[in-house]
Amino acid sequence: MKIFSKERFPNGRRHIYFCGIKIFSYSKKQSISKFDRIYSHRFDGLTQDEMRYCLEEQFRRYAGYKLNLDQPQTFNEKLQWLKLYYHRHPNQLLTVCADKVAVRDYIAKKIGEEYLVPCLGVWDNPDDIDFDKLPDRFVLKVNWGSGQNIIVKDKSALDIADTREKLRQWMKPESNHYFAFFEWPYKNIKPKIIAEKFLDFGTDLLDYKIMCYNGQPKNLFVCSERFSGLKVTFFDLNWERLPFTS
Asked: What is the spatial distance between Cα 132 and Cα 227, in angstroms, rounded to a whole number?
């Protein structure tokens, strides 16, 4: 991460580069060595125009076309519009559903505990995990992560020190999606570690994700071959294949 002090805006802000994406730093007085402090306040001082600039830069870099926030047409553009405007009236349920620990209570109340993967433990610190009490096979996750999973099929082969360090890195503020891409539901999640029962589905697991617009399902996609090269296939509600991919 680099700060270019000569690259300033009239209001005195400096650019900060995170993951190759140009973003503003919160305060020119903060030291880069105070990483957690920078991230804990990083976007609080941004104006609406500055945040919009950041989103447009990120979108162009990742999506490959110009972001239309005034009249968003694509699903991706609508997501960026939510990032810019919906947090002004935040829905606490978004944070609950983004939290892999908190969402368990919500699911249990809505449809029943039988739909939950059995939980083996929840911790605030990786050093508190007693691996002796865990079964031979289990899965470790960080509650605010995406793809941050440790699948343990044989505990005797697990490098516990390396596992603790990996979890420790995943719980740092820079792993929170809010601080990288303005994903507001993640902002107020307190990082935790959760261990769940290992579910053996054989060599492949089909993962169905339904995309809703204004609360109504419109299309879906299916993830397959996760362990041999992820494939994502989109369908409409009649299971007619759609001509695009992720």
From this structure: 28
Closest CA to 198 of 120, 81, 95: 120
By CB atoms closer than 10 A (0-12, 13-18, 19+), residue 202 is: exposed
Average pLDDT, the chain: 81
Q: Give the pLDDT confidence of 102-146 residue by residue, as tens digits.
A: 999 999 999 999 999 999 999 999 999 999 999 999 999 999 988
- pTM score: 0.75
Exposed, middle or buried: residue 214 (CB in 10 Å: 0-12, 13-18, 19+)?
exposed
CB 3 within 8 A of CB 14: yes
- Burial degree of 167 (CB within 10 A; 0-12, 13-18, 19+): buried
Dihedral sign, Cα of residue 139, residue 140, residue 142, residue 147: negative
pLDDT in tens, 170-179: 999 878 888 7
Exposed / middle / buried, residue 189 (Cβ in 10 Å: 0-12, 13-18, 19+):
buried
* Segments making up each domain of the chain, as ranges: 2-90, 93-197, 201-246
Residue 3, pLDDT above cutoff 60: no
Q: Are 32 and 26 in contact (CB under 8 A)?
A: no
- Judged by average pLDDT, the poorest of 45-54, 176-185, 226-235 is 45-54
> Would you list the DSSP string of 125-150?
SGGG--GGGS-SSEEEEETT-SS-EE
C-beta neighbour count of 142 within 10 angstroms: 24
